[in-house]
Write a structure and sequence with these properties.
This protein has 173 residues and is an alpha+beta fold. It contains six helices and four strands. It has a four-stranded mixed sheet, sandwiched between helices. This is ALPHA/BETA-HYDROLASES SUPERFAMILY PROTEIN.
Length: 173
């Protein structure tokens, strides 16, 4: 009985670690979407798609800060056609139909000013609700939650993006 119980914990832990790894890749993709944009990369030489394609997801929306044109988030959805092409007949258990991934502070190029501005907003007021990015992320989350149901959508973020993820998640409930 003890062996069975510890085996169950190990399996669950592995599954959670795998999910965490996948979501980390999606967040890395958002960082790279912005870097690809800054470096004028085309679809043929862009780095970002490599971070979601192997998991059979597709980019359906980029979240853009209207103040500077920077990409701070992305909506990735399960790509059934890509999965079927690789003989994956069903979406893996626990895999969300859609993921809202949000990057953190990027200390590079034109986006640094807006990233630092939101960092300071959070430090001063412990809230990101007044940010343009908050409004855009909340609308994107509402849209995919309406489409797939809130239990089939995940929000993930790193650093500043994690702050947005937490507050946007609370904002929809």
């Amino acid at each position: 009985m003890i062996i069975w119980f510890s085996w169950m914990i190990c399996v669950c832990r592995k599954k959670e670690n795998y999910k965490r790894t996948v979501f980390s890749c999606f967040i890395q993709a958002v960082y790279l979407l912005e870097i690809d944009r800054q470096e004028n990369r085309t679809e043929e030489n862009a780095l970002a798609p490599n971070w979601w394609r192997s998991f059979k997801y597709k980019l359906t929306q980029t979240l853009i800060d209207e103040r500077d044109g920077s990409i701070f988030g992305a909506v990735l959805e399960w790509d059934r056609a890509a999965a079927l092409a690789d003989m994956i007949l069903i979406r893996p258990s626990g895999a969300p139909k859609a993921v809202l991934a949000l990057r953190g502070t990027l200390l590079k190029g034109p986006t640094i000013r807006r990233d630092i501005e939101d960092d300071l907003r959070f430090l001063a007021w412990e809230s990101l609700r007044g940010s343009v990015r908050f409004k855009v992320a909340l609308e994107a989350l509402k849209s995919v939650a309406e489409m797939y149901g809130s239990s089939n959508v995940c929000v993930a973020g790193h650093s500043l993006g994690a702050g947005f993820a937490l507050q946007v998640g609370k904002g929809i409930s």
